[in-house]
Specification:
Elements lengths: L2 H25 L3 E6 L5 H16 L3 E6 L4 H14 L3 E4 L8 H9 L4 E4 L11 E5 L1 H15 L4 E7 L5 H14 L5 E8 L4 H14 L5 E4 L2 H13 L7 E3 L5 H8 L5 E4 L2 H16 L8 E4 L2 E4 L6 E2 L2 E2 L1
Parallel strand pairs: 1-2, 1-3, 3-4, 4-5, 5-11, 6-7, 6-8, 8-9
Antiparallel strand pairs: 10-12, 13-14
Helix pairs in contact: 2-10, 3-4, 5-6, 7-8
Main location: other
GO cellular component, one term: cell envelope
Subcellular location: Cell envelope
Length: 314
Amino acid sequence: MKPKSIFYSVMVLLLFVAACNNKTEKTGSKRIAVVVSTLNNPWFVFLAETAAAKARALGYEARIFDSQNNTALESDHFENIIVAGFDAILFNSTDADGSVANVQKAKDAGIPVFCMDREINSLNAATSQILSDSYSGAVSIGKYFTQELNKKGAYVELLGLVGDNNTWARSKGFHSVVDQYKGLKMVAQQSADFDRNKAMEVMESILQAHPNIDGVFCGNDAMAMGAYQALVNAGKADKVKVFGFDGAEDAIVSIGENKVAATGMQFPKVMAETAAAYADEYIKGRRDFPQKVPVAVELVTSRNIKDYIAYGKK
């Protein structure tokens, strides 16, 4: 065979291999990214793992990204996800405003984003947002709080991340009830960033200034457990009622042991699996998704604890 003929034969072979490789890339497993605000909280670990498990059950490869409550790191994750060509993103944001740009970048790249639990302040960046009804859940906690404190006493509120809409929805729902009772006085309100260790530190500091309190409302269960530990350390755990929000395992166990008074049960499995199912439907062609899907929050107390397990109902 002449050199020229060999050259053309090699070129044809290379083009054939390249075509096969492109075909493999296009017909290979599709991928779904799960981006969560933090894996330093068991509730978000459950949310992320449930979303990834549902995606895998639907036939996708799934990878979890931890933003560590850092919007800059979250931005890096989105950049990597877009470059890697993931087919959808199941998203739990770090900041209601700061995360909008990341979601918009994904949308511009043709990658749908389905928000789970945490809202972003945009009505058109995300394909859909599946969110707990935090306000109504906190209203229920507020009503139970007033009953347990007999409508009087001093109390403390521990807020979550100031950039998260859930923080303010829960606070506003709680105060819509509690502020109606003049006998109830809030002596301190501080952020503990939804973090257990920080909540313990903040609570210890508050107790030095306000040693005689009757209740603590916390924007999530991690903070509730941190506040409870601070009360134990101060010898006041049996005198102060602690209220959380989430339905996390340690809070459910503590309610059963009469250590924590109540929590608002969110349903992370519902949110995670709905987001994954929506992503699957989008990839298969559906485009008509509701912008917001509310998920009810249920009050859990020692009176109905037998009906619940961590992160949901029995």
